[in-house]
């Protein structure tokens, strides 16, 4: 009978599936770190910067990763305080920089088109133009100005996200060059 009980207990521990959980981590505007086990619990404004971590069953998990600290002044860190390296930070910075580059290029093109249209209109004789042509030109200038504004917003958003990433990197004691 004792062997059956021992065998049953062993079977329960050996057969039970390993547990794993996804933890979502974010830092709010006050610098407070929050954790959630469901992405729906993360406020929408923080979802673009949430860190997703897979946490395994505590019985199977080993010790936390050891962060390599510089041993001498001239030596650089290879990871931040959370064990994330240069590749992790570059992967986060690259898409933001690409969005900024693209939005800036689109803004410059839109601005050139606006200036070109405005100069074209100023060279023409308003008195010889029909009302419908003047209206059309005005609508075109307004459309181009709205396009410029759209790209200005995209530029501001990309810069804001890059600023938040730089702040996060500073708090995690990541090498600032990793964001270049």
Provide structural commentary:
The chain has 180 residues and is mainly α. The protein has a domain at 86-180. Helix content is 52%, strand content 10%. It has three helices and three strands, in the order H-E-E-E-H-H. It has helices at residues 2-15, 86-123, 131-171; strands at 20-27, 33-36, 51-56. The chain has a three-stranded antiparallel beta sheet, with no helix packed on it. A hairpin with a 5-residue loop joins strand 1 (20-27) and strand 2. Helix 2 runs antiparallel to helix 3. The longest helix is centred in the C-terminal third of the chain and has 41 residues, at 131-171. It is elongated, with a radius of gyration of 28 Å. The protein starts with a helix and ends in a 9-residue tail after the last helix.
**Low-pLDDT segments, ≥5 res:** 58-72
* Total helical elements: 3
Percent strand equals 5-15%
Content-based structural category: mainly alpha
User: Which H/E pattern describes the elements?
Assistant: HEEEHH
Shape type: elongated
CA-based gyration radius: 28 Å
Distance between the termini: 67 Å
Provide the residue-averaged pLDDT: 77
**Number of E strands:** 3
What percent of residues adopt helix (DSSP H or I)? 40-55%
């Amino acid at each position: 009978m004792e062997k059956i009980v021992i065998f049953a207990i062993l079977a329960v521990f050996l057969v039970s599936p390993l547990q794993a959980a996804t933890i979502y981590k974010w830092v709010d505007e006050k610098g407070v770190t929050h954790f959630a086990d469901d992405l729906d619990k993360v406020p929408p404004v923080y979802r673009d910067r949430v860190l997703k971590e897979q946490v395994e069953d505590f019985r199977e998990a080993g010790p936390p990763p050891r962060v390599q600290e510089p041993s001498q002044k001239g030596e650089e860190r290879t990871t931040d305080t959370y064990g994330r390296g240069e590749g992790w930070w570059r992967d986060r910075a690259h898409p933001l920089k690409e969005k900024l580059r693209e939005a800036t290029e689109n803004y410059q093109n839109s601005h050139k088109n606006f200036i070109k249209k405005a100069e074209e209109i100023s060279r023409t004789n308003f008195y010889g133009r029909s009302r419908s042509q003047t209206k059309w030109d005005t609508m075109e200038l307004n459309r181009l100005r709205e396009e410029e504004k759209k790209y200005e917003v995209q530029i501001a958003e990309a810069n804001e996200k890059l600023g938040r990433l730089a702040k996060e990197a500073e708090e995690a004691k990541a090498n600032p060059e990793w964001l270049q």
